[in-house]
Amino acid sequence: MAQSPAMNVMRAAVEKAGRALRRDFGEVENLQVSKKGPGDFVSQADLKAEKILFEELSEARPGYGFLMEERGVVEGADATHRWIVDPLDGTTNFLHGIPHLAISVALEREGTLVAGVIYNPITDELFFGERGQGAYGPGGRLRVAGRDRLSEAVLACGAPHGERKGRAEFLTETEKLLPNIAGLRRFGAASLDLAFVAAGRFDAFWERGLAAWDMAAGIVLVREAGGLVSDLTNRQKMLETGDVIAGNEFIHAALLKEL
């Protein structure tokens, strides 16, 4: 497919950052790690990847602003465009040598998400999409799964571990859902969970308490793969509330009702 100049920039940036993460992943035991908060670690690899992404995207689009996990908000001269960047989604997986992690980059134009790239540098799987142009992955064009019954659906979720809030609510939800679904998965990288929904690997995904960089690119992919994305009150306030639910129109509606 023909790609826009912005998509070429995004892909080149994540692939360069991915090479650095791949090298560090091979030496994960030697990384110096500092504790950033309960159950949330930041490593040298994370910071290095973010630096690469910041430099590459800034050089290609000097005026664009940023919303980044480590640097936070970086204002740009062009107030209509903003990169939303997670340099390493799945840091805990990375530090434990689990190869389920991703770099996630989205482009926001005048408040609308218009492009997204999610890249797992360890498995070398790249998922990308642009508004109105479809979403693509390792097997070509992405399509959400076609199942229309929760009883046949495999869902992905996030779980509030450690000191994170919402554990009682999560346990209530899963107790209600488990007898009525085909399976539940918790892999620890929300961006990849959303990419897998877009690719039809998961039928749906939900989680509370996410940051914008965890889901911005994935929202683009799911929409472009024919799926629906909302917050848990069925509004388009995901980036503000931090809550997200994604799936095809049938499973999205059924899961929304259950939750």
Automatic annotation (TrEMBL):
Cofactor(s) it depends on: Mg(2+)
Main enzyme class: hydrolase
The keyword Hydrolase appears for this protein: yes
Residues where Mg(2+) binds: E69, D86, L88, D89, D214
Catalysed reactions, as listed in the record: a myo-inositol phosphate + H2O = myo-inositol + phosphate
Gene3D superfamilies (alphabetical): 3.40.190.80, Fructose-1,6-Bisphosphatase, subunit A, domain 1
Record bears the keyword Isomerase: no
UniProt entry keywords in alphabetical sequence: Hydrolase, Magnesium, Metal-binding
Record-level Gene Ontology MF annotations: inositol monophosphate 1-phosphatase activity; metal ion binding
Gene Ontology biological-process annotations: inositol metabolic process; phosphatidylinositol phosphate biosynthetic process; signal transduction
One Pfam family named in its UniProt record: Inositol_P
Protein name in the entry: Inositol-1-monophosphatase
Organism: PS1 clade bacterium
